[in-house]
Amino acid sequence: MEKFTEITGTAAPMPLVNIDTDMIIPKVFLKTIKRSGLGVNLFDEMRYDREGNEIPDFVLNQPQYRDAQILVAGDNFGCGSSREHAPWAILDFGIRCVIAPSFADIFYNNCFKNGILPIPLPQEQVDVLMKDAEKGSNARMTIDLEGQTVTTSDGETFPFEVDAFKKHCLLNGLDDIGLTLEKGAAIDSYEDSLGQSRPWV
């Protein structure tokens, strides 16, 4: 998993509440078990018409937001089913951070396991960040995980809270497999001792 320390980039404004996982990645795209390739279908039903043409008014189809690394959204982001394809699609598009007043619990935890930083902030602070994002690609926001701050293009800074263990995993690029591999020496030692004491196992 790619490490997350600090990013400075364009933030896309999406002031919708209750954006569920089916909106993020519709169920028709859940056939794959690969984490890559889903970015093109992120928000598919909002991004494309029935003929597969881009809908110009949708935020991620606008030139200034095509390379957005940050998403500023409404309350209860990621609600609905627990599909892990939702963070896969967000990350594959290139978004590393989602800011909203609140998140669905399962989606929130899945983000950390896939290298995405979800930041819950009070509504009034999200409103400020939403207005900053609406300025387009010239307004670049900075997310500092080590310092736990979000800084607007105008220099206004908001602190955020994050679980210490989840922060450690993001800073070091550790998913569940990476965490297990960190214990590789201890696992090898245990298997060696087990083989000697219980060779029939």
From TrEMBL:
EC number(s) from the headed UniProt entry: 4.2.1.33
DNA-binding keyword on record: no
Aconitase A/isopropylmalate dehydratase small subunit swivel domain mapped to chain residues: 1-123
CDD domains: IPMI_Swivel
GO molecular function: 3-isopropylmalate dehydratase activity
Reactions it catalyzes: (2R,3S)-3-isopropylmalate = (2S)-2-isopropylmalate
Function noted in UniProt: Catalyzes the isomerization between 2-isopropylmalate and 3-isopropylmalate, via the formation of 2-isopropylmaleate.
Protein name (record): 3-isopropylmalate dehydratase small subunit
Source organism per UniProt: Sulfitobacter faviae
